[in-house]
Amino acid sequence: MWDYNDKVMDHFLHPRNVGEVENPDGVAQVGNITCGDALKLSFKLDKNNRIAEVKFQTFGCASAIASSSALTELVKGMTLEDAEKVTNKDIVNILGDLPEAKLHCSVMGMEALQAAIANYRGEKGGAAGKNEHEGRIVCKCFSVTDTKIRQLALANNLHTVEEITDYCKAGGACGSCLNEIQGILDGLWKEKKTESESSKRAEFMRLPLIQRVLKVQEIIDTEVKPMLAQDGGSIELLDMKDNVVVVKLTGRCAACPSAGVTLKSGVEAILRDCLFPEIVVESR
Q1: Is 35 a catalytic residue?
Q2: Which residue among 22, 72, 218, 230 has its CA within the 20 to 30 Å range from the CA of 14?
C-alpha cells in the first residue's frame, strides 16, 4: 500500500472536474491503457482567453487521479501562456508529495495539458514535450524514446535509471533497456558539463584583463593562501596571459621538494575548480 498524504487522498477520493468539456477548445489524450495509465484532458476558454472550464478522465491509480484533479484546479483561470509553463513539479507541490515510483503520474498530467494546448493551437506535441515522440524507442515496453528520456532528465535533474523509471516508467518492465538508459544519462550530463565549462571559460575571457587578474587574485587570497599557510608557505601572483597564470611560491613552499606537486595538485586544481579546467599555473 502506498503511503499517500491527506491531500493526495482527498483528490483521489473526491476528484475535482471529472468528465469531458462540451465543445472544448482544446483536448488531448496521453498515456496508454495497456501500460496502466491514460489521461484525457479538455478545456474551454472564456472571452478573456483564460481557461474557464477544464475536465479530465483518467484510467490509472490513485496518484494518476489525484494528479489530474490537482492539475485541473491549478490551471483553472490561467491564460494559456501561464498554463503551458506548468510543470509536473507544480502538480506535486499542490499535492504536497508523491511516492517516487508514482512521479510519472504528475508527468502525465503535464504532458496532457501541453498536448491539449497544442491541440487548441493546431500544433503537434506540447511546449516542453514537443518532439518527445521523435527519436529512437529505447524502452519498448512503454514506448519511451531517447528524446523523452533526455527531456525528463534535464527538466528534473535526473541522473539514474531508477529516477527515469519513476518519471516515465522506462526500464520498469523487462529491464533490457536499463544499461542503454544509463548510457544516455551519462552522455547527456557529460555533454552538459562540457557546455557549462566552455561557457565559464568564454565568460571569464570576455572580462577585461584587469578584472581577470583581480578575480584570480581573489581566489589566491581566499582559497590558496590559507591552504599554503598551514605548512608555513605562501604565494604571489606575478603575471597572467590568456589561460596561463604565473605565480611564485614563497616561504617554506619555495624550497620544498614537493613544490611542483603543490603547484599542480594544489594551486592549479583550485583555480580550475573555481574558474575553468583549461587554467594552467606556472611558477618562477
Answers
A1: yes
A2: 22
